[in-house]
Amino acid sequence: MPSRLEYYYQGQKMKVIQETCIAGRTIDRTIKITSGNHRSKRSPKINITPEKVQKNNDRIAAKKLMRLLNANFAGGDLHIVLTYKDAPDQMQAKKDRENFLKALRRKLKKNGKDLKYIAVTEYKHTRIHHHIVIGDCDIALIEETWKKGFVKYSVLDNTGNYADLAAYLIKETTKTIREEGSVQKKRYSRSANLITPIVTKRYVDESKLWEDPEPIKGYYIDQDHCRRYEHPVTGLEHLEYIMVAIDEPRKIKRWPGRKISGSEYYKTTYEEEQESLWI
To answer: Is the pLDDT of residue 171 over 60?
Structure first.
């Protein structure tokens, strides 16, 4: 970790930004020194390897997916895995997933429900299979609709914090998304009716980067997802943590703040520039 003195230049402090995102029962925060605002005497330029870039892109994607999951799904919703009796090729598997979701949407609509989902297909690590997080849907209806193999499922817990699930789903895509000619052009697809959480940014005092974070009233900090680290590309200091509601979450949709230009973004390949949250 660099010395705090490295973040001063001619007596001037660094500009520190606090990002806050409210998503369901969670409030996640990142406090960081952004590369575009530094005035410090920085250490020699970090050796930016493709591996570091990929690792950073995976981390950013997992954070975005976590926020999407936390904002739209809750305890009792399902994480299903659709497997095959007979192994299809990638193109056929893609069609199978699309057809399954269309059929399930039609059936739910007859019952006056909308289909909410986030879907990931694993093409490389093992036999092809589909991971889908689905809201407010009966498992019997899912089993009736998937005719290609078997359905495994687990029920989401009541914490509302699905950071580990997001990281797992992103990990499932890491090989395929970067493979030239792959049928998978996005890390995941999502239904259009999902809420997209808003990230609010504001400048804060530099001390917030170094002090231990304190939860707001009615929340606790998930210690498993509280970490300080040097950004793998810029080498600048970051603090990340997630606050989870103890009982009912606060009824706020957007944390107070003012618009600050710029965001954490580091893409270098055409395929990753095409990465999208939308179908």
So the answer is: yes
